[in-house]
Amino acid sequence: MTAFETSGGPETPVAVEGPHGPVRLKWHKLRRHLAEAPFKRSNLALGWRLGASLEVDILATADGRFAVLHDATLGPSTTGRGRASRMPIASMSGLFHRDARGAADPDAPVLSLAELVAPLRKLPRAVSASLQLDLKLLEGQGLPDSAIADAAAAVAGIEEAIVIGSHYLDDARRLSAAIPAARLGYDPMLAASRRPDLRDPERLLRHIERHSTGVSVSLAYLRFDAVVAAENQGFPLVRRLLDLGIETDAWTVNPGRDITDSILRTLVEAKVRQITTDAPGEIFRLISSL
């Protein structure tokens, strides 16, 4: 396999060439390196310019805004404390996300979605650049209409670059309806964790097919080991999804003992179109060396 070159070089790859064409490398939580803090503003700007697939997590706050946060609580991943859903967005001002050592990163403040993406309207965007809003919900928490309006206003002018993804397809569909140009993705892995029958890849396919009917789902977010298990069982799950017009994003693929050459080879040969990773440069090199 040969590398897919980008203007940023191998330290800032946006894709890698596989046996069936380029495989996008999505920057999970906007990370380019595993040890750095999530949601760095400089990485967002760089990826936007280079044409990367970018991802941020969003959580509704007490005042019906969206904060860019992965966890339900502010600590220990940020310099704050408290449950995000019980706090107004203004109370998070001055907080920062922490890196792997626990150090606060001044380039990664805790921001509202509107604050994070506002600079993108003035920055040059490569045609292939996209920003996934990974919708996080707490059990029993509905998505307020005010948060949907907040997100729609936040991405006004860059709607065509937006992807809405979530375990919670009904709420993601409501959000995507407010951003008509956005693409919609579904992550069925939460459902699969609660229903043992969905560990069967054919039943998982049917589940995704049923839930995407009439909803225009264009992406399926599958845990990488679910893709590998389906391939090992001889069921071409990823290819069958492509037949339905649904591309597969395999998450989260990071360097380490769990990620072998065999796993990477299986993913790209299965026709996965996107790989979610916190270390795109390292995954780029590993796949390029296969």
UniProtKB/TrEMBL annotation:
Q: Please give the Gene Ontology molecular function terms for this protein.
A: phosphoric diester hydrolase activity
For the region Disordered, give the residue spans. 1-20
BP term (GO), one: lipid metabolic process
InterPro entries, per the entry: GP_PDE_dom, PLC-like_Pdiesterase_TIM-brl
A UniProt-annotated Pfam family: GDPD
Q: Where is the GP-PDE domain positioned along the sequence?
A: 54-281
UniProt-recorded name of the protein: GP-PDE domain-containing protein
Lineage of the source organism?
A: Bacteria, Pseudomonadati, Pseudomonadota, Alphaproteobacteria, Hyphomicrobiales
